[in-house]
Amino acid sequence: MKIAYITAHAPFGRGETFVLEEMLAMAELGVELVIVPRNPPKEVFHDLARQLLDRAIWLPLFNWRIFLSFLKTVALNPRLWRILGRILRHSRTLKILVKNLAVVPKAVFIAGLLRQARVEHIHAHWGSTTATMAWIASELTGIPWSVTLHRWDIAENNLLRFKVERAAFVRCISEDGRREVLCIVGETYQDKVKVLHMGVRLPDTLLPQFHPSRPDFVFACPANLVPVKGHRFLIEACALLLETGIRDFRCLFIGDGPLEAEIRQQIAQLGLEEVVSLVGRLPHGELLRMYERGEVDAVVLPSIVTGDDEREGIPVALMEAMAYGIPVVSTNTGGIPELLSDGAGIIVRDKDARQLAGAVERLIKDEKLAREIGEKGRRKVDEEFNLHKNVKLLLQKIKSK
Asked: Alpha-carbon Rg of the chain, whole angstroms?
């Protein structure tokens, strides 16, 4: 089967590693992929992305070829006028309207490419403008399409009801996300909106995760430096650990983002330079090799609900650590409790540095507890968040439409 994936950037750029993994798993099942990133950079950052480059169509968001194709379709295809009319009528804010109109010419151009390539299904990740592109390409070609919704893209509500109506099916990655979608679009679509988790690969063998010979307990926070990840509360938790006399630990922030300067300032103000380090963004394979070598004793993700109600879906960063038997600590936000239920991780209140510090202290002091949580986490991932199992289910869903 030939499936087109519409992504934000992948396989280019630094993000969407979970989409890369899913597309690779699709290819391993014999699916012929055509990958169309919305506005790809030139950079190829992740090792596994290189395995998909020959399947990707690198095109800028706009060039003269795209513009000429758009003008031709405007002149000859009345269906495009109806599409434009729907965008103008149903984009609920000026910002959303401008974003949607910006991707129309490229969507028109790729529609022709996908028709020529005899693509049988289009799948978009994110319900924002990537889904707008998938919908337009489907309307112009008759190729069925579907979308995976994550979290912020649900809250944005970019033509969401209309897209749910037109898609063959809609995949949410958590029960929490599905509830939010149905609150927006209505219970009429409950049979079309399904939950199918993202997944990660489980390593074949595991090394011991705890090393008595290592002087420090190392916990990592692999997350973009953005408000929803709640880094400042983990920094406060590190300060609380020092206040209680616990000094044999190191906290690694693995990621980059707009809050880097603010986070560095907070670390300096609290005098935490010796225990808290900003590693920067790592290629996906390098992070997994750290886990494989047993260099990380725990993963902590202090996610919060922001003032504008942004929250997590189910973070793949937690799943990946759990797959390696690494105990995880996170918060009661978004779909995280769905992942960490039944003792698969420690759940604390969001924005509560004292609870975060207490959870980390428990793992530092109780190796047996840490091992038990790590084992339960790995079982949970194998049963519910296994990449190969879930990609097979997604492919079955696509083939049934």
From this structure: 22
The verdict on domain 2-199+386-399 having CATH code 3.30.70.330 is no
Please list the ranges in the chain whose pLDDT falls under 50.
Answer: none
The span from the CA of 27 to the CA of 91, in Å, is 35
- pLDDT for position 133: 98
Tokens of 355: 């609870």
Per-domain boundaries in the chain? 2-199+386-399, 217-384
| pLDDT tens digit sequence for 341-383 | 999 999 999 999 999 999 999 999 999 999 999 999 999 999 9
State CA 350 to chain mean position distance. 20
Residue where the block lists tokens 């209140």:
349
pTM of the model: 0.89
pLDDT value at residue 56: 96
Q: Give Cβ neighbours of residue 391 (< 8 Å, ≥ 6 apart).
A: 22, 25, 26, 29, 199
Q: Is CATH 3.40.50.2000 the right assignment for the domain spanning 217-384?
A: yes
Q: Give, in degrees to the nearest 5, the angle at Cα 381 between 18 and 354.
A: 90
SS3 61: coil
- Give the relative orientation of helices 231-243 and 260-269 as an angle to the nearest 10 degrees: 10
Q: Which of 160, 154, 91, 110 is nearest to 6 (CA)?
A: 110
